[in-house]
Structures are given as structure tokens and as C-alpha cells.
Amino acid sequence: MKPILRNASACWRILVVVVAAFCAAVPGASAGGKEVVVVYNKNSPGSRAVADHYADQRSVPADQLIGLDVGTDDSISRADYRRQIQEPLLKELTGRGLVEFATDIVPARNGRPGRVRYQARASKVRYILLCHGVPFRILADPGYDPKRDDDMAESNPAHLRTDGASVDSELALLPVLGQYPLYGPTGNRLAITTNAALINPVNGVFMVTRLDGPTPEIAKGLVDKALVAERDGLNGRAFFDLRNITNGGYATGDRWITNAASAAKRAGFETVVDNRPEIIGLGFPFAQVALYAGWYDSEAKGVFELPANEFMPGAIAYHLHSFSAQLLRNASARWVGPLLAKGAAVTLGCIDEPYLEITPNIGVFFERLMDNQFTVGEAALACQVFLSWHNVVIGDPLYRPFGKSVLELEAQHLASGNPLAAWAQVRKVNSYLLAGRDAEVLREYLIEQPGATNSSVLSEKIARMFADRGRYKQAIEWSSRSLGLPDGSPQQHSRLWRNQADWQKVLDPEGAFRSLESFAVEFPHHPDIYGVRQQQLELAKDLRRKPEIARIEKELDRYRNAAIEAGKAAEAKAKAAEAEAAAKNPPKKK
User: Fold this and answer.
1) How does 173-203 read in b/e, with b if 16+ C-beta sit within 10 Å?
2) Is the peptide bond between 81 and the residue preceding it cis, with omega within 30 degrees of 0?
3) Which among 300, 369, 397 has a CA at the least distance from the CA of 341?
4) Of 36, 41, 101, 115, which residue is the least packed, with the fewest Cβ within 10 Å?
5) pLDDT tens-place string over residues 351-401
6) CATH node for 406-503
7) Residue, of 296 and 469, whose pLDDT is higher
């Protein structure tokens, strides 16, 4: 990821479009599927199935499903993009009466070809949803000459001059085709808007996302997860992974993610912010994840190397990296594919080097979702300062994760006896804490809830609130209760055992020893098992438990020997791979 050069301020061109009387032109907030055009690839197995599934779930009218005769590769040339995607889509949108365009012709001059300029004057739709199988990358045209072909390109600095882009970002400007330069990014005049009604083709933009990922089944599941979260709330915890950068060009990334974390806190989420430079480690208790944003690694490593992550229904996850979406249909490479394969319902990414400031502003994305109750499509458009560039958004564009307030969710779940009420109650309490309300009064409110003694979520929150006041005896009691309930998750248990042991060290070293032993029994292959056993050894020495000292020292020796053997095996494997590569490519004779 490169920070953009300072002379990129020349890129801040604002599209000259007429801001229509949007109150009359924009469909109502309840239009739902009627606002969406669903685009699929006729030649890609599964693409039509994804489109049909989405249309059925979101009640999209049949004449708003458009099949394109396009290639099946992830990438498409600029010429084929025009011929197979841009032109057919324009024809279908106008022919079906979905969008009305005004056009005029810019005549050829100074050796440059003429072009048609489009301006959407009326539109029944606001969103374009691309389905699994539609190409996502427009390749740069090596023969493109901006001096010959593009009389608007010279305002872009040299390092941004390419006509390569994502299909998605290019289609966002379809309502003003011909009015902006292809050779580089174009300013999004609706960036950072807080008025979702303005985001409409008559004002120059489509909201474009895609249902995509490693398989058509994963792509279909994105809308299913969104609908669950709309019905029950986006429940869980929020995790943000900073790099502790406070100045220079790269500080922008930390600032955006910090703003996202602040939005999550305002929405009442249990929020963890990691300021260490490295990615969140494999042993971190990444439990019940509703929201994640972090940076900066080329591959999904650390905690994301686990076979499965605890993403909750409707979870939103984003990792900032230049090529995070380069292989978005690969479940084990880069970021977008792995996040979707592990259960995220929404993510964003880049198919090529975007330069840091032209990536999605994830702080704005989270703020619009939580503070303004935008849909995913609306928030994604608002968080992109530039279009006709390399960004993609994966997920249901109509997904509105925060359409219901925590009070509505609490009342809904309490009325039906749904234990998910606990998540709404925790969010409500956190919001009150942030506003300065008395922590002890709020803790007692949670204790009085009917679900307090049979919800691992509420019990853990109560335990934490006691611990925050130094009341470790009560914290241990509630933590033990949480651990004994059947609705807890593995990663939650990982956190609870270790927190409980920390509290017990003050009052009950014997109890701390037992808690760490329980951790070791439940998680014998945990990445931090060596450190846990070391803590146990120190406790055993303090307690003068000679048999336990001998047993744990033997365990530690076994871990060390296993690590040595694993290191030798890895070294041998690397040498074998090096020898194989050398055999395939012997040095050439002089």
C-alpha cells in the first residue's frame, strides 16, 4: 500500500452534473428490491442461480434481472468491457424503461475521436448488483494514448494514469458515461454524504456491489446472512487492528480504523482495539465477531489462520491492503476470499494498487452504517472519494444492519423469549456508559434481567463490570457462571478462562491454577498453550505443589521438543522445495 503523492490534489475533479429534485426522482426507502438491477453472466455456471436466489429473497422484479454474454475470466479487456458489459447494460436499462438518459455528442477534434456523453435524467433503480461469474477486473489497455484518446486525462498525475479499473467502480459512473476521463480515478461528488437520498443515477452514480466469493454457494449465502441480521440485529463484538502509526502518510489508515472503532463504541458494541504493529495473533480470543477492520498484511494470517472464525450472521469484515481483492474467488489467498469463506457477509477490497487515500474510508463506511442507518450500498458509495478505480464491495447492497435500534431489538427479543435480547442489552448498557451513566446502576440493571443467569453474554458482561471496579470475588462468580452455560463459544471460553485466572491470582491462587488447567484441557493445541503452562508453573511453585511442578515442567519440555522438531521439518521442507526449483531451472551454461 502506497500513500498517494501530494500532487494528487489535482485529481479532485468534481463531476459536473445536475442535482435533480431528488424528492420526486428518488424511490422511497421502502422500495427494496425494486431499486436493484441484478446482473449475471449467461456463460458462468452458477451465476444465474445466484441472481435468482437474490431476486427471490429481495423481491426483485423479473425484468430487473439482466444476463450478459460475457467471458468467464476474472479479468476483461477494456474493449471487451465496452462491448460485453457497458453497451449491453446501457441498452437493457434504457430498453426496459429502468433509466432514462439524455445524450449529446462531443465531436472529434485535434485528432481525438468523438464520443457520446450520457446523463441520467430519471431512474427507477439505484443499485447494480453483480453476481458471481461477472468479471471484476478491467485490464489496462497497453495501446491507450491519453493524448490521443482522452481530452480530460491530463489533470491526473502521472502515477495515477491508467485506464485499468474494477468493473464495479467503472459501472458506478455509468449515469455520466463520457463525462469523465478513463485515464485515472475520478472524484466522487457524493463522497462523505450523510443524505442517502442523494445517491441516485440522476445525481451521477449507481451504487454497485456484488454477490461473489470463492463459490456460488458462498455468494448466495451473503443475502441470507444479511436478512438474518436485519431481522435479529447484528449481534456480537467489534475488533479493530491498528498499527500505532501517528504521523506520516500511513497515519491515514490508522485514523480511519480508529474512527470506525469510535462508531462501533457509539453503537454500544463490546469493542477491542489492538494498537500493536503486528496483525492480531493466532492465540487472540477472536470471539463472536460482528465487526472487524484492520491492516496490513498481504494474506489472511494471524487469527484468520484458524480453520474457522466466529463470524456472527451478517458480520462485516475488512482488511486494508493494496491487493486484498486481487483473487476474490480464492478461499485461501489475499483477504476478500478468505473472509467470505470464513463467514463474513460484507467486505471491501482492492483489485490493484489503489494508493492509500483512494481506498474506501472505512471510518466513513462504519459511521454511515451505524450513525446514519445507511444500507451497505449507500455506505460503500459514501466512503469512496474516487470512482473509476480499483475498489470493489462484496455483499447485499440493500443490507441495512442498523435499521432497528437496540431498544427495538431488546423489546422484540424479550417479547418472543429470544436469548439474543442479551446482545441488545449489552449494547444499550455500553451506550449509557459512554454517555456517563452510573456503572453500578447499569450493572444492577443487567443482574435483574431474566436472562442474566442463563446467558453467557450477560454473565460475562456482569463479570467484567465487577472486575472493572476491583470486585474480583463477584467477577469470578459471574465468570464461572458464564463458563458453565451451554450458549458460550470456544473463543469466548478462551477469553473467560484466562481473565478468570487473572482475577483469581489476587484472591485465590489455587483457583487461578485450576482455571489455567481447565484452559489447557479445553484447548490442548492452543497457540499460547506454552505461555499458559508457564503461568501454571509459577503458580505451582508459589503453592509449593511439587507433583504439579514436575508434571508441568515435563509438559514444557515436550512443547519445546515439539517446536524444535517442527522447526527442523520446516527447514527440511524449505530445502527440498529449493532443490526442486533448482532442478527445474538449472543455471544456464555460459
Assistant:
1) bbbbbbbbbbbbbbbbbbbebeebbbbbbbb
2) no
3) 300
4) 115
5) 999 999 999 999 999 999 999 999 999 999 999 999 999 999 999 999 999
6) 1.25.40.10
7) 469
